[in-house]
Amino acid sequence: MNKKYIGKINILCLLCITSLLFSGCVNQHPEDQGNSKTKTEIVNIDTMLEITDPEEKAAVEAARAKVAAMNKEPRIIATSPATADICDKLGLNLVGVCKSSVSDIPKRYKKVKKIGTAMSPDMEIVASLSPDWILGPSSLQEDLQPKYEEINTEWAFLNLKSVQGMYRSIQELGVIFGKEDKAQKLVDQFSRFYKSYQNKNKERKSPKVLILMGLPGSYVIAMPNSYVGSLVELAGGENVYSDNSQEFLTVNTEDMKKKEPDVILRAAHALPDQVIKMFQKDFETNDVWKHFDAVKNKRVHDLTYDRFGMSATFNYPEALEELQPLLYPENES
Q1: Domain total in the chain
Q2: CA triplet 72, 171, 311: central angle to 5 degrees?
Q3: Based on the domain organization, do 174 and 222 belong to the same domain?
Q4: Which of 60, 112, 172, 287 is the most exposed place for a label (fewest CB within 10 A)?
Q5: Together in a domain, 214 and 187
Q6: E-assigned strands of 13-158?
Q7: Is the pTM of this model over 0.90?
């Protein structure tokens, strides 16, 4: 929550304990198991989605009261495709929505005014729409909040760094905009899915995974606090770089080799075709890669761009289905 701007709610949902509450391979006692997790364990779904921070609850309630006091439908802008999808699922009308060349915007917003891309909304258009609320992903808060402060509006930055973060944000938006019933139906759908899914790998050894997130010409390590990293942990994988609160980390290949991952996953931040070619060239020309066990064992995989992006989306079941044979090839026919 943003304490300085008490009227502005920042839905961040306490990522600091993600590895304990959300990981498919929860390690409650690392001192007993060394650096390796052995089997996945059952995680309580209610604990995973519970919002316990009293300040966060108070901010949500204050926002709900503001919306209720308007006595009219709030004018809402969604600045990213993932945020627009959530608004669509909750049945919220929008006065402005982002445009995207790589993601589909819900059909109900086809005729809604386009305000530019998620990373660079046109603030003149945004201001002209006189929004009561602007909704967007927390990953862009640092860049966009100063711009929102220049116009008379409320805003909420949603935690879309993980699936459970997305559903916590959905619960909070449901409270704020009077869509609790729709929000609860979405949460119930996730609960049913997760209770079934977590049994799939509960007795399997957790593979050690290195996740590379690429842009043309460079790449970084995706940590558990990134969306791709959270999916791998939900699937039962152990991120070899898990001792850092950042989303991404720059590390040299020699340090990666010391981690000796069982699997190397390669994802794209943008321009996936170019990124795949970049990865292929680097793995062919950089001599250090051939010494990785994952390379020797042909366990290097490129992830589908539209399933493994920067923000959590409702296609996470398809993403987990894609991960299954990559992390557990011995269990696939």
Answers
A1: 2
A2: 105
A3: no
A4: 287
A5: no
A6: 76-78, 96-97, 113-114, 133-137, 154-158
A7: no
